[in-house]
Amino acid sequence: MAEPHELREKGLRLTPQRELVLSAVRSLGHATPEDVAERVRQTHPGINLSTVYRNLETLENVGLVQHTHLGHGGATYHAAEAKLHAHLTCERCGVLIEVPIEETSLLTQSLLNDYGFHTDLEHLAISGRCEDCFEKP
Amino acid sequence: MAEPHELREKGLRLTPQRELVLSAVRSLGHATPEDVAERVRQTHPGINLSTVYRNLETLENVGLVQHTHLGHGGATYHAAEAKLHAHLTCERCGVLIEVPIEETSLLTQSLLNDYGFHTDLEHLAISGRCEDCFEKP
DNA sequence: ACCTAATTGCGAAAGATTCGCACTTACTCA
DNA sequence: TGAGTAAGTGCGAATCTTTCGCAATTAGGT
Ligand SMILES: [Mn+2]
Ligand SMILES: [Mn+2]
Ligand SMILES: [Zn+2]
Ligand SMILES: [Zn+2]
C-alpha cells in the first residue's frame, strides 16, 4: 500500500484544483486569494475564483494553511509551518518581516498575566514603519 | 474674538454633518462607519453614508480621529486621545481590551533593536482569546 | 463499472467602500 | 452685509471583495 497523499490524510478529496491551490500557497509565501488564483491559472486556466476561496477555507480548516491580515483589508494565506512566526508589516511600503514567536514572548506573557489574554500573533500582523520608511517620512 | 471651533482650528469647514460625525465617534468609543452613520441619523436623519466616510477620512487626516482594525475586516474609528492604547481583540467573542501603551514597551523596544521596526500598535489590534473564551473552547 | 456525496463552475447576490457630478452651503472679502 | 467661490453634501452608480445557490461534474468507496 502506497502512503496516502497528504490531502487524503486530512480526509479531503484529491482534486487538481485543490492540489494546485495548496502548492500555490506554498510557493508564493504570503498571498491573497487573487494571487493564488493567478498562480493556479498558469497550469489550470479554467479555475474559478470561488473554487480558490473555498479551497483556501477548506485547507485552513484542516490546518494546512493559515490566513493573516497584513494591512487594512483582506486576508493573505501562507502555509502552516512548524515554526510559528509573528508578522510585522510596514504601513508605508508594505514590506513583511517574519519574527520568530519567541521574540514576542515577553509581551504575550505580560498580556496573559495582566489581562488573562491569550495572544495569537499569527492572525493579525503588527503594524508599523520599517527602518527605511521611518528614516524618510 | 471668540475662540475658534476645534474644527475650524484644523482648517476645516464647520458643517453640521461633520460636527455630528466627530461627536458620534467620541461618544461611541470604537465604531464602524455604519455605527457612526446610525448615531448621526438620530439627530440628522438625512445624512448620507458617503458623507460619513468622507468625514471620517477628513477627521483622521487632521488627527482628530483614528482608525484601527479589530477583526478580519474593516475599520473602526475612535477619537484620537492623549493617552495612546493598544487594542486586544478576542477572535472568538470580539471583546475589545484597551491596553496602556507602556504595557507593550518591551516588545516594541526589542522589535526596534532587532529589526529596526517602529511599531504602531494603534493601527492593527492584537488578536487572541480572552480569558473566558480560552477556558471554554 | 456504478453510486453517491463532495467539489466545481457559473452567474448572481451581498456587503463595503469609493466615485462622479450636480446642487447646496460655509466662509471670504470687497 | 451680500455676492462669489471653493468646500462639502446627497444621490446613484461603479468597484471590489467575498459569498451563495444550483446544476453539472467527478473522486472515492463498493
Ligand atoms: Mn488601516
Ligand atoms: Mn481573519
Ligand atoms: Zn516600509
Ligand atoms: Zn472572547
TrEMBL record, chains A, B:
The record's InterPro entries line, in alphabetical order, gives:
FUR, Fur_C, WH-like_DNA-bd_sf, WH_DNA-bd_sf
Q: Which UniProt keywords apply?
A: DNA-binding, Repressor, Transcription, Transcription regulation, Zinc
Q: Which organism is it from?
A: freshwater metagenome
Q: Which PANTHER family match?
A: FERRIC UPTAKE REGULATION PROTEIN (PTHR33202:SF7), ZINC UPTAKE REGULATION PROTEIN (PTHR33202)
* Xref: Gene3D superfamilies: 3.30.1490.190, Winged helix-like DNA-binding domain superfamily/Winged helix DNA-binding domain
Q: What's the short name of a Pfam family annotated to this entry?
A: FUR
What is the protein named?
A: Unannotated protein
Which positions carry the signal peptide feature in this UniProt record? none
Entry's family note: Belongs to the Fur family.
Q: Which Gene Ontology MF annotations are present?
A: DNA-binding transcription factor activity; transcription cis-regulatory region binding; zinc ion binding
A GO biological process held by the record: regulation of secondary metabolite biosynthetic process
